[in-house]
Specification:
Helix content is 8%, strand content 30%. The protein has 192 residues and is mainly β. The longest helix has 6 residues. The relative contact order is 0.08.
């Protein structure tokens, strides 16, 4: 096992105020190993060049999530809203969900691995939504994700086949349609 080496030491201070920044989180910039994002709150950060110990720019509305190419980031405050942030200017370039007064909830937003979509989970509504980065449209292809173990829950395939959007699954699994007719209402939370 190799030991970690300290490459650069610096003390982040805002240039005009000469005031120390209380660092909550450090995030490396994916496209430039000399740059780091210093988060001083849940929704505010700044970009620094650690090699030259230089402040580059402020990110006044930023949640600490950056795309793999380092060009855009996400601002998803707990009070509501979802915005795409230009990492070069720090400005909101696209609003996917406007600011809505719905109380403080846990929200999580992440880029998909290819960076073309944003997954947004809202704890208060218990919803998972998928947005296209290119045009900001909501992609309807994400409906339900069910993880299951057939040996532990052998009835799970039948339960999924009952969903209206998954009738083709019943045909593929050769489950007779009369077996799918149930009087019970299907609770999606208990599929697995």
């Amino acid at each position: 096992m190799s030991e970690a080496a300290i490459r650069y030491k610096f003390r982040p201070r805002l240039p005009k105020k000469q005031k120390d920044i209380i660092v909550q989180k450090l995030i490396p910039m994916p496209h430039n190993s000399n740059q780091v994002i210093v988060m001083d709150s849940d929704s505010r950060g700044s970009i620094w060049d650690v090699k030259h110990r230089k402040y580059l720019r402020s990110l006044p509305n930023f949640s600490g999530i950056v795309a793999n190419d380092g060009k855009i980031g996400i601002h998803s405050p707990n009070k509501g809203g979802l915005h795409i942030v230009d990492m070069k200017t720090g400005a909101n370039v696209k609003t996917l969900i406007g600011y809505v007064a719905e109380g403080v909830n846990d929200v999580q937003a992440e880029f998909t691995p290819n960076g073309k979509h944003i997954l947004y989970y809202h704890n208060g509504h218990q919803t998972l939504r998928l947005f296209r980065v290119s045009d900001g449209g909501q992609d309807g292809s994400l409906l339900t994700v069910v993880l299951f173990d057939e040996q532990v829950h052998p009835e799970i395939l039948k339960n999924v086949a009952v969903l209206p959007s998954r009738k083709y699954l019943a045909e593929h699994l050769e489950i007779p349609m009369e077996d799918l007719e149930t009087d019970e209402s299907l609770d999606l939370r208990n599929l697995a």
